[in-house]
Design goal:
The chain is an alpha+beta fold and 554 residues long. The protein is built from 15 helices and 31 strands. Bound molecules: guanosine-5',3'-tetraphosphate.
């Protein structure tokens, strides 16, 4: 396996530090995250994209398999045992004069909370579908987050080399189920065994597919749609069918309107096959053309222009013990404005403290390098001695504070018991640090004599990882005791609005780490019953954003 770390040194520093330099650096940056259901081919597509960027020289480097895989932390050991991917990092590479930041998200659905937070740092999303399966549950869920944040979505329909569903049906599904208008940029000729290539709708050119050895680059031969040679290379009935479909699409009349793409209302759709590397380069080229460059982020005083000369950014992810030899904690910061420089002193908006950032890092998979500078759209890794929380803003110049990152509604709840009182100190440290990292949400009983924390997670595996990490990183054995609830809602109006409605039934009231009321229900039915009885009670699936207050520690 070989990786290359680019430190963005292609431009002279004095040019980039000027205002023009900042504008130029922003204009050539694109940042995106891939949303998909496990097995749709995210790892394979990522590998192929990185190959184009020259960031890896060999496919197979992203999810190094078997013996190749470096184990750098105990819970990565758990990943290895279970054959899953639960960590995520950022991959930066240069491609045709642009700098691309790919915000990698964990592959396992139990870690979707982590993906939600990563999407908060993304300017664009690539929705990856398996042509045989269409929309799948995890994709739908992540799409909702993109919609909420109005993130532009580019759709890549993968595995066209295998039998799949009708392309028109796949587009209809996107439109009907997601309310997103699809606009096919290319259209497939045949599928599965009879997949012959795609027609680029904008140029009316045909890119022919030739079946290469498994996993190898398939050759892309380019012909005009009216080239007579085409008839010798493609079965006429397949070509006729594709042209007929294209005519139908044209008749439907939608236009590829970039404003709608950027508003997250229209999705450009591409057909291809990541494994055979067919259609990946044209996809990347079109993406570079159409994707949104780093955009203004919303601060408490309104949008903050990325061209604001002073640096600002926010923490979207914390990760502890990535390297167990150093027991380190890393805060991932998305740069939102200005130029970030190594050794810079910045303000921490929540505490007002000044911090010198002496060893900012760029992480590439599991490798790191010290970053000299970074620009809006980039992500830097900072050493976190326990000072940073998710959503924190860092800035220079006049004060900026970004909107926090919401927590999403957990679906699994369990008491976390510490059977060994002498280990309480470590138990407390572990619980507090894992909460701070966002590995799990922590709730508490309203009865303060019941001090054990309630773990609230999106998936069971998330709880297992917390237990595993408490044991391996903090040396405490714990016991999980499930609570029989499946639905959580925050009471938007706080404790007073809850008191106003008086006694409520069929739910349990708990407190979150910011002492805000959360209601737990056994099922949606009980929730709906409460909504019917008390329509005045405002409930939310998303925790209100916190600013300026410290959480309750165990
Ligand atoms: P994920 O990260 O989204 O979970 O998916 P991943 O890339 O690991 O791909 C899941 C499986 O789908 C892999 O097969 C991969 O080779 C296959 N795949 C990805 N893209 C394509 C494609 O365009 N066409 C076809 N036919 N298959 C594709 P696997 O058997 O699970 O793993 P492996 O033995 O290939 O590593």
């Amino acid at each position: 396996m070989s990786t290359r770390l680019d430190t963005d040194s292609s431009q002279p520093v004095d040019l980039l530090s000027s205002e023009d330099g900042l504008a130029e650096a922003v204009a050539r940056r694109r940042n995106f995250a891939i949303i998909s259901h496990p097995d749709a081919g995210k790892t394979t597509l990522t590998e192929k994209l990185l190959l184009y960027g020259g960031a890896i020289q060999q496919a197979g480097a992203v999810k190094a398999r078997g013996e190749q895989r470096k184990v750098t932390s105990d819970w990565m050991e758990l990943e290895k045992q279970r054959g899953i991917s639960i960590t995520s990092t950022v991959l930066q590479f240069d491609y045709s004069g642009s700098t691309i930041n790919l915000l990698d998200t964990p592959g396992h659905q139990d870690f979707s909370e982590d993906t939600y937070r990563t999407l908060a740092a993304a300017d664009n999303a690539v929705m990856l579908e398996d042509a045989a399966k269409g929309l799948e549950p995890q994709t739908r869920k992540l799409f909702e987050v993109c919609r909420m944040r109005e993130i532009p979505i580019f759709t890549f329909i993968n595995k066209m080399d295998r039998p799949g569903r009708e392309p028109l049906a796949l587009l209809d599904e996107i439109e009907a189920e997601l309310g997103l208008t699809p606009w096919a940029v290319n259209w497939p000729i045949g599928s599965g065994e009879f997949f012959r290539g795609v027609i680029d709708r904008r140029t009316r050119q045909v890119v022919l597919f030739s079946r290469a050895e498994r996993g190898r680059q398939s050759e892309e031969k380019l012909l005009d749609l009216d080239d007579p040679e085409l008839k010798d290379l493609v079965e006429p009935e397949l070509l006729d069918q594709a042209i007929e479909d294209l005519d139908l699409l044209e008749a439907a009349g939608a236009e590829l309107d970039l404003e709608l793409v950027h508003a997250g209302e229209l999705t450009p759709v591409f057909f291809g096959s990541a494994m055979t590397n067919f259609g990946v380069r044209p996809f990347l080229d079109a993406f570079m053309d159409m994707a949104q460059k780093p955009v203004a982020r919303i601060g408490t005083d309104g949008p903050v222009d990325p061209l604001r000369p002073d640096f600002s950014g926010f923490v979207f992810k914390l990760q502890a013990n990535m390297d167990p030899r150093h027991r380190d904690r890393v805060a991932f910061v998305r740069v939102c404005s200005g130029r970030f420089e190594k050794d810079m002193s910045v303000r921490h908006a929540r505490t007002g403290r000044t911090i010198r950032l002496s060893r900012p890092q760029k992480l590439f998979g599991q490798d790191r390098a010290v970053v000299e500078d970074a620009y809006p759209g980039d992500v830097i890794g900072l050493n976190n001695p326990g000072m940073f929380s998710i959503g924190d803003t860092l800035y220079t110049g006049t004060k900026v504070e970004y909107e926090g990152i919401p927590c999403f509604s957990p679906e699994i709840f369990s008491w976390l018991r510490n059977p060994n009182p002498s280990a309480f100190k470590n138990f407390r440290k572990g619980v507090n640090e894992l909460r701070e990292e966002g590995a799990v949400q922590i709730l508490y009983d309203t009865d303060e004599s019941k001090r054990d924390p309630i773990l609230a997670a999106v998936g069971q595996l998330q709880l297992e990882v917390v237990q595993h990490r408490l044991e391996n990183e903090y040396g405490v054995d714990t016991r999980l005791e499930p609570l029989g609830f499946q639905v959580a809602r925050w009471v938007t109006g706080g404790w007073t609005s809850l008191e106003d409605v008086g006694r409520i039934f069929n739910c349990k009231t708990v407190r979150d780490a910011w002492n805000r009321p959360v209601l737990l229900f056994k099922n949606e039915w009980n929730l709906n019953q409460l909504i019917e009885e008390h329509p005045e009670l405002d409930l939310s699936t998303v925790a209100p954003v916190v600013s300026g207050v410290e959480p309750i520690s165990l």
